Amino acid sequence: MIKVGDVLRLRAEDWAFGNGPVAIRVSHLRHGHDIPHVTMIAVMGTFVSGPRAGQMMLLSVFKHALRRPGVVERDGHTPESRS
Questions:
Q1: Residue 16 and residue 29: Cα distance in Å, rounded?
Q2: pLDDT, tens digit, 9 for 90 and up, residues 55-80
Q3: Under 8 Å between Cβ of 22 and 2
Q4: Cβ distance 65 to 43 under 8 Å?
Q5: pTM of the model
Q6: Percent helix / strand / coil, the chain, rounded to 5
Q7: Of 29, 38, 52, 63, whose CB neighbour count within 10 A is largest?
């Protein structure tokens, strides 16, 4: 689904206690990614833009949001745009 190095472009409703859109580069998957019945993944990452660029944050991201087109970028491309 996601891996270290991916950039997640999330809307406020994509993460717990979301107070706005964020773009983070994944540095660590903490828990939930490998447990099918868990609805959230704890992701540690670094803001890639905005006033908090470079700062670390731990987010609880809803798994269903990661399936939406454009949310996950890998190597500068969204997986669905690669051929």
A1: 16
A2: 999 999 999 999 999 999 998 776 65
A3: no
A4: no
A5: 0.84
A6: 15, 40, 45
A7: 29
- What does the block give as tokens for 59? 């987010």
The whole-angstrom distance between residue 39's C-alpha and the CA centroid of its chain comes to 14
| pLDDT tens, position by position, 17-55 | 888 899 999 999 987 777 788 899 999 999 998 888 999
54: region left, alpha or beta (phi > 0 left; psi from -120 to 50 alpha): left
Order of strands across the sheet with 56-62? Answer: 56-62, 40-47, 22-31, 7-10, 72-73
CA atoms within 13 A on the CB side of 31: 2
The answer to whether the CB of 21 falls within 8 A of the CB of 8 is no
